Amino acid sequence: MEFSFQKNVISYFLVCFLCFTQFSSISCEKKVSLALYYESLCPYCSNFIVNYLPKIFKNGMIDIVDLKLVPWGNTKLQPDNTFKCQHGKAECFLDIVEACAIDAWPDLNEHFPFIYCAESLVYHKNYTQWETCFEKLNLKKKLVTDCVLSGRGKELELQYAAETNALQPPHKYVPWVVVDGQPLYDSNSIKVKDTKKYPIFHHLKMGFFLQKNLSSFFLFSLLCFIQFSSISCEKKVSLALYYESLCPGCSNFIVNYLPKIFKNGMIDFVDLKLVPWGNTKIQPNNTFKCQNEHFPYIHCVESLIYHKNYTQWETCFEKLNLKKKLVTDCVGSDRGKEDYREFISYICKAYKGTAPIPGCSSSNSLSFSSKLSTISSTITSFVEQRVKLAASA
Asked: Does the keyword Glycoprotein apply (predicted)?
């Protein structure tokens, strides 16, 4: 009996879960090691810690997991033994704070709530309020502050630096997740050498698989199932937006259309890239010349808005000696909007995965060809009616 990982991950997860909870003969005496190498102010790390990592604390899964947090990531150790953090000095400081919290409360059930609280503040761009976590969690602030001020925190960070730099294979990005010594790559599959650890990729029989690798695959299948940030079980559709920050058409698209991919989970299937350059030109002296002919008009209109007099926006044409007709014709013609409305359908068409994308089956995301067919049918029906009326006359 053979199994396909991609199409049957949910089935595997359920089978593993049932076997784990029901049969004492297959109980996991040795826990699965799960290590997270991260940086305190890395947005991807905080997203993972806040939105995905807590799932292992549900349904008793933490009972088979040995979780270790390592706050160092891409930080560089300088020749004078100082730290150069990827997100500045504030990150270096918060890394030390979190290292001290882990040291002050070695029990995962005590230090993880603090890490989660601090990273939640990072996630919501309010990390300067990290000290409020002590009061929220009824923790003794002095244990951590003494550690930070005494130099103990720096010693801990040096230990984390050595551990991170000794990773084999070396970490490539953060968050870097390692299960039983094997990193979970961001590609669609585990590297060949890792299939010995997770033999599901060799299509082995389920009986042998459950007996030998229950604990490892149980964790791995769940992580893949919830689609955390380090793994993608389906190949995503790439969506790139090349734009200019002060372009009215661009801001209209970003504000009114682009957010649709964040609804109903569609973003899980889309790899969005934003490129703020547009029609900007590089000058011979390596300076930039931006397309700013429209800025005086935008400034004029926004000034009226600022002074609560926006109904007088048309006066800007006369003030700046601009042709009003170019703008009014554009507004009246609805130029450009149809392509923007259709971009969801292009995502749906480009997707090659097996899992259904939320939003692709709705009436709002019909493909252009489908709409064209509907319009064509309507026209044909209208012509047939006209022919019949002409014949009866």
From this structure: yes
